[in-house]
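Slide 14.
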Amino acid sequence: MPAKKYIVRLSATERQQLKQLVKTGKVAAYKRLRAQILLKADIGTEGFGFKDKDIAASLDIAHRTVERTHQRSRALKLDGDLQAHLITLCCSEPPQGYSRWNLRLLAKTMVALDYVDSISPETVRQVLKKRHQTLATYRMVYTGQRKCRFCLCNGKHINALQTAP
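Slide 15: predicted structure.
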């Protein structure tokens, strides 16, 4: 059997929020079910770490529902610093052998540079789509010291981000 693709490791606050969600009776059934799945799949210090098939059997749901819940829960939410690194990476030259960046290549490079443990190309796409409006209003200027600056139309610099080596 292949290794788990999505591992659930909850922080103490996430675990507490999910427990509270399960306890209260005034929540949609699907939300309560998803919370129960995540609590049972948690491999943290307080978690049970059940296998997917055991979770599916105990909650009387399909195995695929458990897998999808893991996948959705691990959809990485990039904070501002990681988004800045991703945008900076987009501004830099693509690796040798590539004419331009693609989503898969950006995701692999973010992992290779140890910015994140894992990231999907879809997460990269969502961040770039969210930032597209912002980036379109600014003009990107490449400086000689591997920096990418965003300038307003009047030429004032907004910020300078150090690009990846």
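Speaker note: Residues 12-73 form one domain.
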